[in-house]
Records
---
Amino acid sequence: MKAQFGLHLLELTQGDITLQEVDAIVNAANSALAGGGGVDGAIHRRGGPSLMEETRRRFPMGCPTGDAVATAAGKLAAKWVFHAVGPVWLGGHRGEPDQLQSAYRRCLELARQHGCHSVSFPALSTGAYGYPMDLAAEHALHAIRQFFLDSPEAPALHVRVVLFDAGAYAAFARVLETLLA
Ligand code: ADP
């Protein structure tokens, strides 16, 4: 499913984020940037050890929740990996919505700063961090759309959200339909 916002394109697809051929792949990292399972494990496995070497060297203090840092992408078919730290779901009243939106926005700002034309996101926080998929979809797509509306100028950005399974894809597609209605 695709939606155009001025110059910018938002696409939802089902698949494996590590196989995306884009300028930047977003990783669902933890705040220690210590490596983990899920998306993070898959990205480090396919990207190779240079990703962890660079995060250790340049970001020994890790990265706060709601923020993101950029490294080179090693063996991945991308130039950059943006290591984004989404919130752990604690019931929704501890700032999680703002933190999740901030994690998306920071990655989009990094994409701009690094001259990216295309960036792929996983559904941040919806795995080990327990964020309910429907709510995560709302906050993710709201943040992306808001970024597009706030930066209508060129260069055009192609944002692809890569959902791992059919349920996640359906949740994001439902929300995108309501945003377009
Ligand atoms: P978090 O710790 O932020 O919750 P996870 O990596 O545990 O991050 O999960 C985030 C989402 O990414 C989950 O919906 C999970 O199903 C999905 N996911 C796991 N592996 C991949 C992959 N290779 N490509 C795309 N999405 C993935």
---
Amino acid sequence: MEDIRISRRALMMGAGAVAAWSASPARALLAQATAALPASVEALIAQMTVEEKAGQLTLMAAAWAGGAANALNPISATATFDEQLAQVRSGRITGVFNGNGADMARRMQTAAMREQRLKIPLLFAADIIHGFRTVFPMPLAEAGSFDPDLAERTARVAAVEASAAGIDWTFAPMVDIARDQRWGRGIEGAGEDIMLGKAMADARVRGFQGRRGLGADDAVAACAKHFAAYGAGEAGLDYNTVDVSERTLREVYFPAFQTAFAAGAPTTMASFNELSGVPATANPWLLDTVLRKEWGFGGVVVSDYTGDEELIAHGFAADAREATKLAFLAGVDMSMQSGFYIKHLPDLVAKGEVPMARLDQAVRRVLAMKVLLGLFDDPFRRIDPRREKTRVRTPANLKLAREAGARSIVMLKNDGDLLPLPKAGKRIALIGPFVQGQRELIGTWNVYGSDAEAVDLLTGVRGAVADPALVTAVDGSGITDALPGGIDAAVLAAAAADIVVLAIGESQKMSGEAQSRVDIGIPQPQIDLAQAVLAVGKPTVVLLRNGRALVLEKPVLDAPAILVTWFLGSQSGPATADVLFGDVGPSARLPVSFPYSTGQEPYHYAHKNTGRPNPPGPLLEYKARYREGPNAALFAFGHGLTYGRIGYADLDTGGGRLAMDGSLMVRARVTNSGTRAATEVVQLYVQDVTASITRPVRELKGFRRVALKPGESQVVEFTLRAADLRFVGIDDKLTVEPGEFRVWIAPSAQAEGVNGRFVLA
Ligand code: NOJ
């Protein structure tokens, strides 16, 4: 079973599992790259000056047309395009990122191939996070599909589109586990769970890189980022201090990276944060002891944007020269955007402070990657202005965006089966700041897509119903500010309608980099709008627009139906309409817990029990709970309803005894007693009841998307092995201990589903 297989393989990649790593595809890939490094490339290294070597380790934001990169990152060292061309000719840069297409790439590559002394091809990188010109749901939303195959397919299309514009390398997937919803960058990852994170990391790397090898003209190299524990910043503040135990690093934050490398990702990006006092960008334990020596990673480590420069602000390096030395010697092969390596490495090498062998090692890794990408064979293989126009936004790609969008929508509640809505005979009022206009559709971190090319809700709904004239739209409010007369207009529209669809939530600017929030609720003007609209008393569906888990309170919670619609990309409107009107049943699940209150953050389902858990039921004194509520989610990780009526029964734990070298089948009967088809995400959780290191109250160990026709019943089966029950022990190494386990087959991390016990002996 795919999910268990991923889990087991990734677990095996833990502490000391060098043997497992050696057998992994990434190892093979990189070993092969180095072994296959043509003799001419070795000869090239022998001919390179120290400056040319440092140039191979220097990556800069593209300057063409002002550069898209600067719109997404703080403006740092800037250059004109002509200055950048001069750097290419003199071999002072290895490539550029977030550039502007095939024409730019062709001009730069031509300069490199014709006018640079050694004619080393340039590398073009970009943040292809959730699509290129066809924009797919934001990665967090897509993770909610619990469908790695879907994630692989969208990443594949993103790579096919991006590669035609000359892009060789994507700064994705982001595989950071995000357990604090105040953090804005959770939107780029797969949420709070380790297993789901690994499954998505695996799928996305495979999708970006394709199945024909990195040399294929439609493959882009993946970069697992941000190494490591970037999502664990104190108080959910972006870039903030991280201080977690080695055990937590190994158990929570490392596995998705190990999975990405096992899937073949040849690069990783050092994170901005410090890790228990030592910035990741200059952390020899992280970048050398663990990554290189323990895991055998042979690929390229790139800094994040000015990450080496920031060692000064961290208070870790006195100046630029020292920052360069510390980052480079710790293991950062390539410097992004500060220009520090080209400025300072030559002198550091000349003075003997950086060994030439270390310089050659980093250069060899970068050239190996360029070889792998086929750039030495044909530096123009991905630069194709014709394909750049014809391969993008094809009907098939847009269809996939629509499918992915619909599969990412989570139905939180549906009282009285208000959904799906009828397509005919009803007047529908669409109300809220997200219902109309080419804005707030694709979400953050999209360099090449645009809201102007995306389809809004009004268009999607009008396209779905029998009589588009019965659909009205009114904003009612701005996102953070009230609109003069907005509520009055909204109330009038609601009063004149049979059904209200109220779209409220966060702007796309409220999540993403540097967009941490102190309050993860819906802005007050929209709450005021919701209050007034719900008071009209019409059947109302709330559509949430959000880049993270939200805190939902009254009056929003009083709405009979609530759908989480995130930022769904190019086909946002039609995808939402597909679910609203039942052409596609909702099947996604929450990849992050929705807490009762922001004050609970960081909240995640796999928390520990504590010595004083509050049993289910009333809040008790001197228990681990808040004055105002339980240590639980309002809508749990894994929660999501369907248009079916799903029941769980007949747990079978296969005799209840798992041998250390054996396997255990755990089964349950899942039945759809409703009148509509449904796809249920059946989840397997375990709890290690007693262990030498305390274990979470539940851990996801498997999931399956199961399609059930009305009245259909299926036995859903999971296989557990001892390796699935491993954890990082007292010595920070993987261990597995005999003993008793609880097991659930359930529809969410908080649902009881069917549950029982087994023994590992
Ligand atoms: C900074 C971000 O942290 C990183 O994820 C991104 O790849 C770079 N900027 C380049 O845009």
---
Amino acid sequence: MFPRPDPYGALAMPVYHCLAYEFADHKAMIDSFTQKSDDPDYSRVTNPTVINFERMIRSLSGAEDAVAFNSGMAAISAAVMAVAYAGCRIVTSRHLFGNTYLLLTRTLARFGVETVLVDLTDIEAVRAAMTADTCCIYLETITNPQMEVADIRALAGIAHEHGAALLADTTMIPFIHTDARRLGIDVEILSSTKYLSGGATSLGGVVIDYGTFPGISAALRKDILMNLGGYMTPHAAYMQTLGMETLAVRYDAQERNAAEVARAMAARGDVEVCWPGLPGNPFHHLASRQFGGRFGAMLTLTLPSEEACFRCIDALQLVRRATNLFDNKSLAIHPASTIFGTIDEATRREMDVSDRLIRLSIGLEDPDDITADLNRALDIALNSEQQ
Ligand code: PLP
């Protein structure tokens, strides 16, 4: 049961655009400021609209706590900082969202945190990278844009043997379908900008703490939010609370559309299609088992050349040329020259971000229309290639 969010019984949680809160007496004030009560004191760290959003996620995930941030990156950096310390090691993959890669390998490196990049699908390599100072294994459930899937339970086993936490960015498949606890994920992190916001209305990020690794949400609420800021804004929480109400149906429809588009693209035979829902995909069985038959709505197409990718993107009429994932609209982007465009070529190569790859996020349009648009744009791009 969700708690009644508003004293007047408003069905949509109102937006509390306020900063400070008045108390009945000094005792109530002390209790709030020393976190003995849940009463909000200051909106940098607590706000009724955001608290309501956090409670809904806690209730749907069965987690111990959920802490909302003003972007996915703020949530990722906060979660990592909750477990990391100078001299520690983070074991992760070179297949990471670009800013996460830069956060771990550049920003945190300046504070004495060592990040070791290993192939997370090679369990023995992961085991070999673990040290007594390893604070966490960090992974993305489906990597963006390489679409790699690692064996999460096996990685959780290794992390826990070494007293480390397993942190997982689950942005690709909504938390309602991830079953993080069963997979051994201690801390789930998502960019709520994506599936949750519903129609790309607002930025946000959430850290979901399953209570299986000590002190995560206390560190987030008492230390990181207090000292670094980055709490979700009330307006974003309002938008994303509405988004959460339609998440399950939107996700189902987008995933169904992604399946149709992936099959239609694969049937062409002249582009390489990557979507873990396709039976021939190398991660199909693992993804089926781990995610209960859910595969997300992001897929990639590999074309013969970078030029062909650009021609295809320029020829699109329905699919939008835009970044973001899981908007209601279908989106296309060439990651190597945009999201990863400021990362040098050697690093991009190391991260397997191919310059022949287009990333698609499949939306809620009629799947026949999406497929027709992609087929037409690909015909233009590939026919010019042959001339
Ligand atoms: N994690 C993944 C897998 C992403 O794709 C993104 C953004 O694209 C982020 C994190 C960062 O989220 P935000 O843009 O909300 O900061």
---
Amino acid sequence: MEMFCNQCEQAANGTGCNISGVCGKKPEVAVLQDHLLYGLKSLALYADKLGRNAEIDRFTIEGLFTTVTNVDFDPARIGGMIKRCYELKEKAKAAAGVTLSGPVADWKPADDLAGMTAQGEAHGINTQHVNEDIRSIIEILMYGLKGMAAYMDHAMILGRTDDDVMAFFQKALAATTDANLGLMDFVGLSMECGKQNLTVMGLLNTAHTDAYGHPVPTAVQLGTKAGKAILVTGHDLKMLEELLKQTEGKGINIYTHGEMLPAHGYPGLKKYTHLVGNFGGAWQDQAKEFVNFPGAIIFNTNCIQKPSDSYKDRLYTWGLVAWPDVKHVDGWDFSAVINTALALPGFPDNPGQEILTGFGHNAVLGVADKVIAAVKSGAIRHFFLIGGCDGAKSGRNYYTEFAEKLPQDTVILTLACGKYRFNKLDFGDIGGIPRLLDIGQCNDAYSAIQIAVALAGAFECGVNDLPLSMILSWYEQKAVVILLTLFHLGIKNIKLGPSLPAFITPNVLNFLVENFNVGPITTVEADMKAILG
Ligand code: FSO
Ligand code: SF4
């Protein structure tokens, strides 16, 4: 079976995965995901005409997030979503009272998985447009929509939505099927996607802080505490909260993993005394680390990898994450996970290092006077936002080395899982301001933007004129939409690595360089010298 996927930084040979995904995605899953995306476009043609419908909008978000890298590897679940997509399309068609014509509008999936898979082979990304530059921009837009859907999903779980954003999702999905649109139309839609994502990330930020308070600087234990144990990995705070409630008083300690680390900074979560620490590093180390976790493990979002037999029986997925043969928790009852943890040995007491998190915009701007004075006195020469995703490539050592080699009069702001490249190092402080400030998850990019905008206001300049450089690492489609948001805000001179996306053609890259001066990382020495002189 033919597959082609180039949506993430791991794309095989820097061009795309065509035999099997480097992420573990099998051809069957890849073509079913292509099929689901085609169905979502068909649904969008009618949803765009219908206007807001909560059920359809919710499904669109879940469908898009399902196709993000390292989320859903289960053919049966994706097949179920394709069927549901068709039912909703028929419902939207009837409710909108219009009948559109053409292959996308007429889409009807086969009844069985084998048929749906065969149909999916005709809907690969290379069929999106004959012109490779337009195809490249359509891919940017599609990955932007997928990334934005991930953030919207978290916001929706906390009861938030936005009509204008949802109208944009449907409009943009429908637009990708319109043969009359040209390159600049899709450039415009991609920039609009960046703008809409700023709204979504603001929505999510408010949802988090309304539910759990503003993060406060918090020391997180990397050692272990005696007792039964559950490890929570992914990004979803509401799922963690529910698990904390259901495990209270049961002798089970909860540990965060990967992107869940910043959860420790929220007053509404840190109040649970059995949220005891963080275990392990970034997502790509899960296989070797989970083997050593003597409790239950649960994923609430990406990035899941093929589980080894040594921990598969104590592994659970929740929400949109799925792996064939791994137990899935539907809804909010975590008793199966709890019972698994109770039957396992758990940890002895073994205190370890502590690291800091919880420097969201509220905490950083709370000491803005001190920060501004330190910049004015020359005690702080430059800020570096070293953030984004981690991954398996050896070239990612660049980020560790970059952080290590920075002069003592610089401050590092960080977010997302790329921080694990350096967050256990001791960077010291500048007049009481820690040199490493962990803003949070990739989901908290909004907070980083708020900090930059506030600093620009204080210094009466634009964000591009601040002594601030962005050294970003990308992996999957959430990083794509954050980049689109930064472009929408007019932020220039971003350094991006470890490699540029395979879906960007030379012409599209030229466009991005000319307009935003975005460039690939080179060597630590050269990049640092170019910034600091
Ligand atoms: Fe990382 Fe994975 Fe958070 Fe991504 S855990 S790579 S961009 O899902 O979302 O930073
Ligand atoms: Fe390859 Fe990434 Fe696509 Fe997986 S998501 S198949 S690793 S390009």
